Amino acid sequence: MDKILFQIKKRLRAKARPLTSKQLEWARKIVGKDFNPLGVKTAEVWKIVRVVYKENQKNLDIKQGLKISEQLLKSKYQEEKFAGFGFIYNFRKEFDESILDIFKSWLSKYCTTWAFCDSFCINVIGPWLSKNLELITRLEPWAKHNNLWVKRASLVAVLKNAKYLEPKYLFKRVTPFMMDNDPMLQKAAGWFLKEAAEYHKEEVIKFLLGWKNKTPRLILRYAGEKLPEKVRKKFLS
C-alpha cells in the first residue's frame, strides 16, 4: 500500500506547476480558503491514478483500494484528495450498496471545498448511480445530514441522472432546499433544477413559478440560466 501511495504522490509532484501567490489568492476567492493546490490539472490526476492502478491491479482488491484512497483523502492537497476518489473509481465494478455509506463518511470527514464535493459527485458517485438507479433513494437522508458537503452531495450526485427520473421525484428531492439560507446549498438547488429543465422543461418552469415569491433569488437565477429570457423574467420579476 505504501508503495502505491508513494507512486501516486511522486507522479503528482512531477506534474505540479505551483500557482503564484496572486493565482492562489484568486483561486481561494473562488474555491475557498481551504483550497491547497499542488498545481496539477484534474485530467492529469485521473490519468496518474488510472496508470498506477493498472500497474498494480493484479495485487489489489477493493479493501486495499479503499485504504489507499482514504490515505490520499486525508491529504491537505486538493489533487491528492482528488486522487483518492479517482483511485477508488477503478474498483467500481466491485461496488455494492454499502459503498454509499463510505462515500458519505468521506464527504463528511475529508471534504473542505465545493470543488472536491462536486468533482466526487459528478465523476464518481453520479456515474455509478446511473448504472444503479434503484439506489438513488439511498441519498435522500443525506439532505438532513449535519455536514454541509453531504447535504450538497445529496443533490449534486443525482443531478446528472435527471433524465432518468420523474419530475415529481426530482421536485421531492430539491424542495427541502428551496428555503435554505446557505449559498452553497442554494447554488446546488439551482443547478439541480437547471439540469432537470433540460429534460422536463415545462414542469420545472411551473415549479419555479410556484416558488418565485418564496425561494431565494440565487436559486431562481441558477435554475433559469438555460431557459428563454421571457420565461426567466416571469419568475425573476
Give an overview of the whole structure.
This protein has 237 residues and is an all-alpha fold. It has a domain at 1-94. The protein contains 13 helices and no strands. It has helices at residues 2-14, 21-31, 42-56, 62-73, 78-88, 99-110, 114-130, 148-159, 167-174, 183-197, 201-211, 217-223, 229-236. The mean pLDDT is 95.
Which spans of ≥5 residues are poorly predicted at pLDDT below 50? Answer: none
Q: Percentage of helical residues?
A: 55-70%
The count of DSSP E runs of length 2 or more, i.e. the number of strands, is 0
- Multimeric state of these chains? single chain
Total count of helical runs of at least 4 residues: 13
What's the N-to-C terminus distance?
57 Å
- Beta percentage is under 5%
Major sheet details? none
Structural class: mainly alpha
Radius of gyration: 19 Å
- Helix/strand order: HHHHHHHHHHHHH
Write down the overall mean pLDDT. Answer: 95
Shape: globular
Give me some keywords for this one.
237 residues, 64% helix, 0% strand, 13 helices, single chain, mainly alpha
Write the layout of secondary structure elements.
Blueprint: H1 2-14, H2 21-31, H3 42-56, H4 62-73, H5 78-88, H6 99-110, H7 114-130, H8 148-159, H9 167-174, H10 183-197, H11 201-211, H12 217-223, H13 229-236
Helix pairs in contact: 1-3, 3-5, 4-5, 5-7, 7-8, 8-10, 9-10, 10-11, 10-12
Quick rundown:
The chain is mainly α.
